[in-house]
Amino acid sequence: MAGAFWCIVEDDRQGNPKKVMAEVLGEAARLAGQMGGQAEAVWLTDKATPEGLKTLGELGAKRVWLFESAAFSPYRGEVWTPVLAELAGKEAPQAILGAVTTRQRELMARLAARLGAGLSADCTGLALEDGKLVATRPVYSGKLISKMTWAKAPWLATLRPNVFRPAEPQAGATSQVERPQIAAPAENMKLVERREEASTGLPELAEAEIVVSGGRGLKGPENFVILEALAKVIGGAVGASRAAVDAGWRPHRFQIGQTGRTISPKLYLGFGISGAIQHLAGMRTSKVICAVNKDPEAPIFKIADYGIVGDLFEVAPLLTAEFKKLLEK
Ligand SMILES: Cc1cc2nc3c(=O)[nH]c(=O)nc-3n(C[C@H](O)[C@H](O)[C@H](O)COP(=O)(O)OP(=O)(O)OC[C@H]3O[C@@H](n4cnc5c(N)ncnc54)[C@H](O)[C@@H]3O)c2cc1C
Fold first, then answer.
1. Which of 20, 79, 193, 282 could cross-link to 99 by cystine, CB 3.0-4.6 Å?
2. Predicted pLDDT of residue 197
3. Which helix (H) or strand (E) holds 87?
4. Burial bucket for residue 234 (CB in 10 Å: 0-12, 13-18, 19+)
5. What's the pLDDT tens digit per position in 251-264?
6. How far apart are CA 285 and CA 281, in angstroms?
7. pLDDT in tens, 110-140
C-alpha cells in the first residue's frame, strides 16, 4: 500500500517477534497515521507462529507480508535482500523501518543499496516535517547529533532499541496476512555449523532496561559473577568494555561501544570502566548512568548522573545486598 510504513520483523528464531518490535511498530503507526498511511510488518522466517502473528496485529501492524520458508533460516543477507527488494519494488512503501540489531544493521544497508535509497542508521528520533521524514542520529561516537532527511522514498531507517515509545498492545486487533509468491534466490553461502551460546538466564543486552557493565577494573573473568549477582537481583543484563572483551573475559556479543553493541537502557551501571569515548558511543543515550570507579578523575564521571568513587569489589556486593533488601520488601 502506498503510504505504508513497513517494519522488518526481528524475531527470536522461535516464531515470536522480539520486544523491540513494539517500539518499531509504535513509531511506524505514529508516523504513518500522520500521513494517512498505516504500519505494516514484513516477516521473513522459517516458522511463523499464530502467537507471533497475533502479537504483530496487536502491536498495530495492519498487514503482515509473510514469507515463510526454510530458505530464510538461518539469516543470510544475500537471500533476504532480493526478496524484500522485489516486494518493495511492487508495493512502493513510503518507509522501511528496522531495529538496530546485528542482522538488521546488515540487511537494511544491503536493501538500501539494492533499492538505490537512503538509509539513516541508528536513529534516536524520527519526525515528519512538511511531509518529509527527518531523522535524528548521533554521529562522531555520540559527540554530535545530526538531522537528516531523504531525497526520495522509500525512507529507510534503523531505530535504536529502548529509545522509541513502544506501541500499547490492542487486544483483539488483527492483521491482514499476505503471502506473496516471491521465490528466495539460491544461497551463495552454506551454513556449516551452528553453535548456540548457553543462555545466561539474564535479559538480552540490546533489549534490557537495566545493564550492569564491567571493564578492566574487574581484573579477571572470574569476577564477572559479582556483576551477574547484581544483575540477577535487579533484572538486568551484563555487558562489558572492549578491554574486558579483548582480554577474553567476555564474548564479543557482550561488548558495548563503537565496535560493539549500542544500548539505551533506563539504567546503566558501569563498574571499573574508565569511560573512553568509544565505550560512551555505545551507551551515552542511557536514561540514567551510574559509575563506580576508584579513580575520581575517571572520564566516565563526566557523563554519569550518579557516581561512586570506590572499590567495585566492595561497592558491588553492597549494592546487591541493598537492592535485594529493597526489592524483597
Ligand atoms: C577503534 C577503536 C574502537 C574501540 N571500540 C570500543 C568499544 O566498542 N567499546 C569499548 O568499551 N572500548 C572500545 N575501544 C577501547 C577504548 O578506547 C578503551 O580502551 C576501553 O573502553 C577501556 O576499557 P576499560 O574502561 O574497561 O579499561 P580502562 O580504560 O583500563 O579502565 C579501567 C578502569 O577501572 C578502574 N578500576 C580499576 N580497579 C578498580 C576497582 N577495584 N574498583 C573500581 N574501579 C577500578 C580504573 O580506575 C579505570 O578507570 C575502542 C578503541 C578503538 C581505538
1. 20
2. 76
3. helix 77-91
4. middle
5. 999 999 999 998 99
6. 9
7. 999 999 999 999 999 999 999 999 999 999 8
Binding site membership of 52 for ligand 1 (Cβ less than 6 Å) = no
Cell 544491503: give the residue.
Answer: 110
258 and 225 Cβ atoms separated by less than 8 Å: no
**276 C-alpha vs ligand 1 centroid, how far in Å?**
6
Quick check: CB of 103 below 6 Å from ligand 1? no
Q: Cα of 137 to ligand 1 centre, how many Å?
A: 24
| CA triple 221-224-227, angle to 5 deg | 170
- Residue 244 alpha carbon to ligand 1 centre in Å: 8
Answer for the pair 16, 158: CB distance below 8 angstroms, yes or no.
no
Whether the CB of 73 sits within 6 Å of ligand 1: no
**Ligand 1 within 6 A of 280 CB?**
no
With residue 81 as reference, give the H or E element that holds it: helix 77-91
- The CA-atom distances, in angstroms, between 313 and each of 44, 124, 228, 273 are 46, 35, 13, 13
294 lines ligand 1 (CB under 6 A): yes
Q: Which residue matches cell numbers 534466490? A: 185
